[in-house]
Amino acid sequence: MCHLCVLVLMLATSAACAQPAGVTAELLPPPEGATVSVQPEGPLRTRIEVTCPGDTAQGDAPLTLRLDITPRWPHYYLDVAVLDADGQFLPCTWRSSERNRVEVAIPAASGTYFLQITDPRAGRPPLLDEAHRSARDPATGLQASICRWFDGRAAALSFRFDDSHPTHILKAVPMLREYGFTGTFFINPGTGDYLAHAEDWAACAAQGDQEFANHSMHHRGADSDEEAEREIGDASRHIWGLFPDRSPLLAWSEGGGTVWTHTRPLREILDRYHLFDAYGGRAISMADAYGERVDAYRQGLDEAIATGEWFTALFHQIGESISEDNFRAVLELTRERQDALWIAGMAAVHKYRTERDAASLSCAAMDADSVRLTVTCGTDAALYDQPLTIAITPPESWTADALHVADADGAAVPTRVRPGPDGLTVLFDVPPVDAVYVIGRG
Ligand SMILES: [Zn+2]
Fold first, then answer.
1. What is the pLDDT of residues 194-208, one digit of tens each?
2. How many angstroms separate the alpha carbon of residue 253 from the centre of ligand 1?
3. Stated pTM of the model
4. What do you get for the CA distance between the two ends of the chain, in Å?
């Protein structure tokens, strides 16, 4: 039995793919005498040639063309499509457990195919250099920066709950509320578990302190474009209906163990329903079966605080997958570190990070006692509506407590004073839109 496997490594040249990327092609079942080869045609396109002798052992039975793709960016698998020689998109199958692999059914005949990856940066908010997030006025010495996380907290923390299990609405939500914390609930609104408590979920949404996310309608993947559109689109529409006053942007996760088949890159569907992929990042799965979960959580959280990262703790059934005692221990540990943490839903954190990546500041003295601060934002405020926090380090001769901030209309902006690395800083929150503020000595 021959193993038809060819690996081509190519150096990526696009800014979006900084690492070497490769594609491995394989035919299944391995047909006698057939060959497959891959040839890069650019950083985002690979040509695949299949050569089959006329009398293959499988006769006319179709083959599976399996493509293993070296990850090029964290969510690249959402951008993958396979085309035939006529440019038709072919149904691609991928599994949540093997995101770097797609399989396509092809005839047992010679043919040419193309693996095409859509540049995920096209049409997205800009990614500006970190230097854009701070500014200094040379005349007064006043410095301004956009805090790494909301309210100047050291790290961001999200509690994530998958599958709309009844213990989420019956146990997790009340316990989170005891501590004043927000969770992100990846719901499957078409499942019996959800429907049995649909009124409770609606009441939770109406209270407005928790975030819901799209986990597809039924947690069963999809066999076609139409089914993928329904599974994803109906879940978004359900959540939008529960939160009519919120931005439609939602976190998305396809569900563990699911298999998806579609033709166009999945990101096209996710974009239609304003979804971002929650996969990746610093995260911990909080199932007791993994052992020592509370210690592992403490360690992960402390590392996130030290490095300024976004940390996510993933839960399934409360009182089953993780004991209620351990869940409470996690909440207690979190409360002890609360001052260092921005505890928020995943869409809120994603918005803040995306807005900040696309924003810039500039400062110019108006006179010896006031500075004009210009905030420029590169995100669409209809989707990205999470306020940003700006930190001002006043000149030495100014008094932080007396500093005042006004918007372009002269209205006072509420401020708060916090210890910073270079003395006291003054924080204030701004909507993520282009705006001018006047900072006065007071
Ligand atoms: Zn799930």
1. 999 999 999 999 999
2. 8
3. 0.91
4. 82
